[in-house]
Amino acid sequence: MSPETLQKKFLKGLTEQFPDILGKLREYVPGQLIAVLSRDELPKVTKYAVNQLGARFVITVATDQRDKTGDFGISYILAFDEEKQFLVLHSNLPADDPRIESVTPDVPAANWAEREAYDMVGIVPEGHPDPRRLVLPDDFPAGIHPLRKEYEYNTRFPSEPQNAPPRMPPPEGSTVVPLGPFYPTLEEPAYFRLFLDGERVVGSDYRGFYNHRAVEKLGDSELNYNQVPFVAQQICGICGQVHSCAYVEAVERACEIETPMRAKYIRTILLELERIHSHLLWVGLAGHIIAFDTVLMQLWRIREPVMWLMERVTGNRKHYSSNLVGGVRFDITLEAAEDIRRVLDKVEEEFKAVVDAVLIDTSLMARLKDVGILTEENARALGAVGPTARGSNVAIDCRVDHPYAAYDQLDVQKQVQDGCDCWARTLVRLYEVFESIRLVRKALDQMPGGPIMAKIDGSLPADRIGLCSVEAARGESHHYVRTGDNNRPYRWRLRAPTYPNLQAVGCMIQGVNLADVPICIGSYDPCFSCTERVETLDVNTNEIRVYTREELQELSRRKTLG
Amino acid sequence: MFKAKLKEAIICFGAGRVTLKYPFEPSPVPPKFRGKIEFDARKCIACGGCANVCPPRCIVIEDMGEVAKITFNLDRCIQCARCYEVCPEKAIWPTDEFETATPDKSDLTSEMIVWMSSCQRCGRCFETDNAIDKFESKRWRGRGPGEANKHGIFPVKPPIDFTLPGSLVREPEGEQVQ
Q1: How far is it, in rounded angstroms, from Cα A283 to Cα A267?
Q2: Who contacts B177 (Cβ-Cβ below 8 Å, separation ≥6)?
Q3: What domains does chain A contain, in order, with CATH numbers?
Q4: Which one of A220, A361, A480, B129 is most buried, by most CB atoms within 10 A?
């Protein structure tokens, strides 16, 4: 461990409570501590770190490592944002009895992560308050955990419809209103059941993960290091660069590859341009959700030149395909830099005019202020990230807390609001656009010359762990890579920012009117399909059936009433 | 309230017409655009570099001894142009074409058969700067599940100056080597 790490406050707190943990901590990569604990210790340390030391729960990584060590592994990843530190608590569980005490009763943010660890690898979270099936399809056979190595990525399983998870019973006297399975304003698959008392929401239930794409399984089994970034960028239609960047940085950290500084700057510029167009898109969508379509039309008009700019700079509007392990594939030339500056000047001017109008528009405020309250306490407890957290006065931003690419040289200003409502989240995004424009200009000015790709000789070392958090427009996107033999990742785990934010929705829409639910859910910039990246299983037979309109109506009625 | 609406009205009126006339007018793509890939059977040496790096595995190469069959399933293509990047002969490249929608998937599938001979130019056929790109993809030549190549570098087989009928004509070796 480096001397700086030893000085850190959280470590003192941790060693006071658990004196023998100090000998188990290893720091292979700066900023990432790894401790291998017994299965009894792990939940205790996790609870203490989160509830007493203020750690933020990031994700769990369940690994089927039976081919290597004959057991299962589970890692709980925690982040100490103020101290710029990740802590990985790892435990090996025997193959015939993979149980671990659930931390969800004390750490609510771990709820989905533990359920997913059971669904995908079969680690049983003992004492979990809500152990229903989360990510697997309703008719997936029971007792099969598809991320285990014995299943191929294209294994087909029989359909067993009796395994559908039970639905949450609505509170006494309330009405159930379904919202989904296609979310009405974002055209993405998500199914909310809202429990209403009159017009007010008194509870909700979520079932999602309809859009499985098996990327983790493919990363574990099929793809090699340089194929994964291109699959990673397909995870999201907006933050593709974020995912591919997080993955390559995780591998680079694990394998100690020295990425040239110019490549890091290019990544940074592309990431910030991506944030600009994503925020412009979101503000437009928010206007659309509350039926203020002038905002939608004008914001998307302003955004379009950014998309054309990206096409000129990278060759594609959205999937830039720029990242490889060790660097980037193309340079930003002088002409491209001029082009970027010119477009940004125009965007800044036009966006400023819109912001000036929007900030004093009382009709907008009436719909957004004091709607969808997520208190600071709840935002912390549920592990909210990104503008959702920053709108609730939780000052976390990975660009500052866990710097990646070239952000440590750019002096990023966190945009924080304390309104805790939809309006605060809107303000955070509006101001972040200006901040991003400033960062792109600064990065273009500071960008050093030199190569854009590191020289990599020979194979990459196996069994190293690399973590990287990248601040997407919607929050922290976290990637975990464990390197493997034969030059391919052994385990690649990713967590999209919507994953923790979606868990905070139940809290956010509690007590609001039904008409405000779409903007509440919209206000954290959800990306349902990014959250759903686990296992693809075509359980249907090849039979094709065309439903008539009457049949469909009947089906949907039955589904709604049942 | 009134002031905000006035400002918004000014923005709307100032915007003018922004929509493009596409598809009634052509919409040119920028120079770096990566469109549908095109290939030249006369240049290909069937080294398999493209198939190895292709992330969605839309390029598949089958080693059939005398010949190598390369299949392009462009309906899977994600237009990353990695194939172009690694190709030592630049026998494959992205074009400007983006209007690839079709009701028939076979419009996007093509096959190329390249005759192989014993090795004459080893070492030149598939060399990249990036060591990772030499790592062999799992099952890239249709191996059984779980089998991984132990060599680390491709089994490179350069082609023979052999003439095939039709579009698959290979020009004599001498003309190709630069």
Answers
A1: 24
A2: B121
A3: 3-135 (3.30.460.80), 215-531 (1.10.645.10)
A4: A480
pLDDT band at B119 (very low <50, low <70, confident <90, very high): low
Each residue of A189-233: pLDDT tens digit? 888 888 998 888 998 888 888 877 778 888 888 788 888 999 999
Upper half-sphere CA count for residue A121 (Cβ side, 13 Å): 31
User: What is the spatial order of strands in the sheet that A191-197 belongs to?
Assistant: A175-179, A191-197, A200-207
Q: Which of helix, strand or coil describes residue B24?
A: coil
pLDDT score recorded for residue A114: 94
The helix (H) or strand (E) run that includes residue A531 is helix A528-531
Cα separations in angstroms, A41 against A20, A46, A118: 11, 9, 20
Q: Does B168 or B125 have the greater pLDDT score?
A: B125
**Mean predicted lDDT score pLDDT of chain A:** 88
Question: B11 to chain A: which residues are within 8 Å by CB?
Answer: 298, 350, 353-354, 357
pLDDT at B14: 87
Question: β-strand A85-94 against A323-324: which pairing, if any?
Answer: unpaired
Which residue, among A391, A428, A401, A414, has the nearest Cα to A504 in the 3D structure? A391
Copy the structure tokens of residue A163.
């395994």
C-alpha span between A55 and A34 (Å, rounded): 15
ipTM of the prediction: 0.82
Q: Spell out which residues of chain A touch residue B79, defining contact as CB-CB under 8 Å.
A: 316, 319, 321
Instruction: Identify which of A350, A360, A456 has the shortest CB distance to residue B4.
Output: A360
The verdict on a CB contact (< 8 Å) between A321 and B135 is no
Residue A40, pLDDT above cutoff 80: yes
Enumerate the residues of chain B whose CB falls inside 8 A of the CB of residue A298: 8, 11-12, 15
Q: What is the mean pLDDT of residues A449-456?
A: 91
Query: Looking at residue A442, what DSSP letter applies?
Result: H
CA–CA gap between residue A552 and residue A546 (Å, rounded): 10
Q: Do A225 and B135 touch (CB under 8 A)?
A: yes
- Supply the pLDDT for residue B126: 56
- Please work out, in degrees rounded to the nearest 5, the angle formed at the alpha carbon of residue A190 by the alpha carbons of A186 and A192: 110
Q: Name the one residue in this structure whose structure tokens are 């009625």.
A: A557
Task: Say which of B33, B78, B130 has its CB closest to residue A315.
Answer: B33
pLDDT digits (tens, 9 = 90+) for A381-403: 999 999 999 999 999 999 999 99
Q: What is the pLDDT of residue A191?
A: 85
DSSP codes joined into one string, A216-265: HHHHHHT--TTTHHHHHTTS-SS-HHHHHHHHHHHHHHHHT----HHHHH
- How far away is chain B from the Cα of A311, in angstroms, using its nearest Cα? 7
Inter-residue long-range contacts of B22-26, CB under 8 Å, 24+ positions, other chains counted: none
Please say whether the beta carbons of A510 and A202 come within 8 A: yes
The DSSP 8-state label assigned to residue B137 in this structure reads: P
* pTM exceeding the 0.95 threshold for the entire prediction: no
Reported as half-sphere exposure (CB side, CA atoms, 13 A), residue A110 has a value of 28
Q: Which residues of B touch A (CB under 8 A)?
A: 1, 3-5, 7-8, 11-12, 15, 18, 29-30, 32-34, 53-56, 78-82, 85, 129-133, 135-139, 145, 148, 152
More confident call, B52 vs B125? B52
The set of residues, in sequence order, having a beta carbon less than 8 Å from that of B26 and lying 6+ positions away, is: none
Residues of A in Cβ contact (< 8 Å) with B34: 315-316, 321
